[in-house]
Amino acid sequence: MNYNFQFKTYQRPFKIPLKTAHGIWKIREGIILSLTDKHGNIGQGEIAPLSWFGSETLEDALAFCQQLPHLISTEIIFTIPDCLPACQFGFESAFIELSSNNAVDLSQLQYSGLLPTGEMVLTHWKTLFQQGYQTFKWKIGVDKITEEINIFQRLVNIIIETLSHSQKIRLRLDANGGLTLEEAEKWLETCDLINATQELIEIEFLEQPLSINQFDLMLELCDRYSTPLALDESVANLQQLTYCYQQGWSDIFVIKPAIFGSPKKLKNFCQNNQIDSVFSSVFETDIGQQSALKLASELLLYNRAVGFGVNHWFV
Ligand SMILES: O=C(O)CCC(=O)c1ccccc1C(=O)O
Ligand SMILES: [Mg+2]
């Protein structure tokens, strides 16, 4: 089967620039592509690279799209090289939209809301809570650790004061690989203490405390603390996920479908290995998000909230 191929780029500014341990992000840029079959059916896909996570750059993705002919075959879609994981996702997603019956039920998914960094979190969490979120993620490793732990303790106290007894809130901390070993230990002590003493709050996990090349240290931290750890940057694509899984990682794996690579290969991996996964956004638009959420609802094993509560970050 051949498809008519078209693409265009997009730019979406954040309401407030996003701060992570990697720096400040102001505009999300990507590519929307469409495949049209001979009956005129259209499938859309999104290429939303995250090069600081190890995917291709937007420029790489654009260059790939520009050298393709206007008429492309199924074979082209399934032989995109592994060095273009966001392109693999974009093209396969459009193909899936065209070729499957698409009846995936997303209504059972729980969402994690992404909180702003710094003191703003102390008021903003409540807006999201009132919208129905019960799981939140807060970025750390952005400011001085003493300041961040201080704000975090205040956040925990405010949440406890607000909740009534049957309610429970889950908090995720994401360091984006920006902590030192000592800082990671300090955070894990803090989390373990909260988990041992607070019934209404669960610190669900600490995400990517250390950089990718400190994988062995993160494995040791799993043994030393009871708060679970999640890998994110370390498992950005199938090759990395396979490596970490084989090295014995048995805590949580964050999967960002939009940069992970071929959805078909992701499905294959998740169906053959029972991993504890959290599916997460890369600030793709609704097009990439729908494809990613369909994968999440098909592959999620332990019903953890998906990290797609991010739309309030955009205008
Ligand atoms: O996972 C979530 O809950 C929100 C999304 C998120 O944190 C994120 C969004 C874009 C790029 C990187 C990350 C990250 O998890 O590090
Ligand atoms: Mg992360």
From TrEMBL:
GO terms under biological process: menaquinone biosynthetic process; phylloquinone biosynthetic process
Cofactor(s) for this UniProt protein: a divalent metal cation
MF (Gene Ontology): magnesium ion binding; O-succinylbenzoate synthase activity
Residues that coordinate or bind Mg(2+): 174, 207, 232
Span of domain Mandelate racemase/muconate lactonizing enzyme C-terminal: 118-228
Gene3D superfamilies: Enolase-like C-terminal domain, Enolase-like, N-terminal domain
Stated role: Converts 2-succinyl-6-hydroxy-2,4-cyclohexadiene-1-carboxylate (SHCHC) to 2-succinylbenzoate (OSB).
Record protein name field: o-succinylbenzoate synthase
Gene that this polypeptide is encoded by: menC
CDD domains: OSBS
Pathway(s) served: Quinol/quinone metabolism; 1,4-dihydroxy-2-naphthoate biosynthesis; 1,4-dihydroxy-2-naphthoate from chorismate: step 4/7; Cofactor biosynthesis; phylloquinone biosynthesis
Keywords on record: Lyase, Magnesium, Metal-binding
NCBIfam families membership: menC_gam_Gplu (TIGR01927), PRK02714.1 (NF002739)
EC number of the protein: 4.2.1.113
Assigned protein family: Belongs to the mandelate racemase/muconate lactonizing enzyme family. MenC type 1 subfamily.
Naturally occurring in which organism (per UniProt): Planktothrix paucivesiculata PCC 9631
Magnesium is among the record's keywords: yes
Positions annotated as active site in the UniProt record: 139 (proton donor), 256 (proton acceptor)
Enzyme class: lyase
Reaction(s) this enzyme catalyzes, per UniProt: (1R,6R)-6-hydroxy-2-succinyl-cyclohexa-2,4-diene-1-carboxylate = 2-succinylbenzoate + H2O
